[in-house]
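Reagents: none. Just compute today. Phage tail sheath protein.
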Amino acid sequence: MATTNGLPTLKIAFEKAAAQVANRSKKGYVAVFVRDANAQGVHLLSSDALIPSNLGEDNKKHVKLAFEGSDRGAPSLVILVVIATGTDDTTALEGGLKAIEQYSIDYLAGPPDVTDDELTKLVEWTKAQRAVYRTVKLVRPWKTAGSDNMGIIELDESGMKDAAGAVTASAYCARMAGILAGIPMSMSATYAALPELTAVTERTTAEQTEAINNGKLILIHDGLQAKIARAVNSLTTIPANGNQDWSKIKIVEGMDLISYYLRTTIESQYLGRYPNTYDNKQLLVTAITDYFAYLEGAGVLAAGESYCAVDYDRQLRWLQSQGVETAGMTEQQILEYQTGSWVFLKCGGRLVDAMEDFEVLFEAK
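Predicted 3D structure written out:
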């Protein structure tokens, strides 16, 4: 029978983790690369007033773009990475990426003049970070083929203009990364306004739909202002265990943050601290269940659909792999059986999407 004392430190930690997920708009960390002969290194900027004074004027303007966000929010921190000038190889970029591995980053944009070789390195680095459950997502210009990855967002725009003239997709990625980092979890970036743009790539409605379905982030202009058409990432091949929602930036953002805080909270507050007994497994299950309940109440997860439990199937397979005779055991006996240092849990829920598609019928009388 489970104890009633619980693990208060773990419970408090999960409450804090849930609050961090629910308050997504207060987090919003974006990393931006520029090349400059001065101020090289990593700079943590909580406002554009902290941009290094000896940075080149064009670079200052570029970094300020990342702070602007949208009318739905702005990033709370810009991690500026200033690397050496020159694009002959990727050494400077790789050094900058290594330097920011210690930071929690939500969205990343390369230099405004990023090269194809650097884009390859950025994609490789992003995938490697995400493989260890870090939340970084790369905003990059679309090239000849899509990345087909939920952690890679590809801006496909060749007709952007502002008051000063043409704007390249590479140079605009920092602006897009800043917008995405500032969007609260209750909202999506779909139709977020871009008031500084006077023109975007001209596309028919059919071409817009095709581009979005091909995993391209595109812009539209409604005659009054430019805005993001549909906030999608580059994922087009949905995994067997996935669903179409994984192609939406909002949904992936929620998945990333929940899995990140779930993992880091367990590692910092549970791993190695308690005996691996069935009672302690159930205490962990209860803490995670409460964590999900908090997120349901905050509108991050759909109410009543979250769950967490000891994973019977994986525990059974593990016991059999260890030579344990399980044929005569009940399900409860299998769940309570000692599993060495291993803890097998299954949990999940459904992230709440934003309102994006409407069908309104007006009946005139």
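The CA atoms of residues 97 and 125 lie 8 Å apart.
Action item: order primers for follow-up constructs.
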